[in-house]
Amino acid sequence: MNEDLTPVEEQAIDAMLGETLGNAAPPDLSRDILTSLHDSPSEVASFVRTNRSPGRRDVRPASRNHLAVAATVIAAIAATVMIAVWLEPQQWLNDSSPALAESDGGQPAIPSPSIEPRTPIVVPDRAVAESTPTRKPPKGIPLVVDSGRDDPEMIERNGSVIEQVAPGPLEAVSLVSSQVDSELRGYWDAIGIEPVGDASAEEVVDRLSMLLGATVPMELVDDPERLRVEIGKDELSRAVATRWLQQITERGLARIDAQAKEELIDELVACFQLQQRFDHTISGWINGTSSNSPAFYQAISVGSNVNGDDSAIVRRLASLTMNVDLRCTRCHDSYIEGNGRQEDYWAFTAFLRRGVTRGAGNQFAIDASSNSDDSVFYELTDGRQRVAEPAIASSWIDGQSDQPIDTIGQWTQHLNGSPELAQGVVNSLWQLVHGQPLRGRVVDPISAPHNEALDRLEENLTRDLMHSGFDVARTLALVIASPATRRAVPPPLLAGNVLSAGEAETRAAMDAVDAFAAALPPRADVSMRDRLDETMRAIGASIDTDNPAFVGQIGDAPDNGERNQVDVKRLSLDFPSRAESLPVQWLTLIEDDQSKVEHLAYLAGRSSVPDTVATAADAMREANVSPELLLHRVWWMLRP
User: Fold this and answer.
1) Percentage of residues of the chain with pLDDT beyond 70
2) Is the full-model pTM beyond 0.85?
3) % helix / strand / coil in the chain, to the nearest 5?
């Protein structure tokens, strides 16, 4: 085997040869090869390294040099493979075939030499990368071949490889920011996207103010060092902490009482001000050592219920702490991305139920040391019931813990300083500023095209967060200072052009938005109640809002008589008025229309379709709204 090839390359070559040769066998050229060997044995043997087993007897007379024997075998194999690719073979026998036990001459087969495992590929440091030539990353999602990495100093999750961070000097914020800038621009070049020009200073400031809840001076947007200091101040840190908690709990922060809300925010503000470590704070909320743990679980459980539906807690905790998407795997293995299993979802559910219990009044109690054997059953796609074994999938934490993780307390100890938590936090902060995670999911309507350039950007931000001791204000400053923040809205997506822009123009604009090379127009924070109302008015109907219990199912608090009225003369700017394709193309794999609506609800993080949304969908069918437009409007109503 070629010593210059990595295990991944060897595996890819083996797969290629298997596909090329099929089930055919190459011609036997042993006599020709042996004749050539006998004519000049020294030339061949000089390139051979043997791996002779102790005690093995030669099959030829003892006077024959053992190097020549090995050379014969290797040369024969090499020539056979090369000629078989070019000639029409008759039959290819695999390793398990008995025909390989003997050659045509009745000689026993010679065992293949053993190959020592190679050291896994390590992502090079910046200094090394700058001194060596780099190739342009391929567009799109790369072919992933199992590399069999098992180095304990490497972390591999979801196609990303991150080195365990050892203590060392922290790079200057300005240096890391320049790296983020060059990596993002290199990503745009790699996927063939032309970024939209810079927005005006006023547009950038207004957009950040809407996203973060406080004003960021424009002169600081391009200065991450000063921006880091500004984020640590009371006004901005409190606003950012509030918006971030609203995001990770999906508005669940509004469901807890005012005092508990303020105490949660106070703890997070202390992290932005470097008064306590962010990772330790999150761990304390999860394992119950913080007095604010019950409030945290109340907020993060919004959408679940006391009847055993813990899907909201499971999904949100996995996303935040391990950057794992569990929206599809509650009911079946992930068919689209292929990296999620149903059994892992329910194993994590059973793991959490060991230590987290919900009582009357939606009150939570946490026992971080509990490892009870209470059984959790789930239903397979064929209807069979299976018991879940409490565990955290090794692919989520890459088996880096020295001890088995049996309790929540052990898990949170592992999370402290972990790359899994760092990845989840990086993606959540990127979503806070840019509207979607840095590492998107292909199942989503908006998702950044994935390639190794984007991986490298995520890895560097994750490493920096870990090196800094989880200084989230520093990471947020780096995210804000990235060139994606200064992108303008593409002309086809501006309010005055939405209806007149062509399909190709709109698609090109959305491709730029997906890749963070353009900005979406500001989206009004319209409640789900109002989105439902607009959808019904668009077809000349209305929803019955006289029943508070019915209205309450759509996700908002009961009407207190003070809800904002929607302008009846004009719908929201982003309300879908036309559609020529589905919100996500994988819906074509689902035949039943109702199932398509249900899967959009799962995509939005819900365990079922709200009754009011189902009623609106039925009304749109009766009004002969096209299936594509109907599903776009359903997603517009359900969107997080």
Assistant:
1) 66
2) no
3) 50, 5, 45
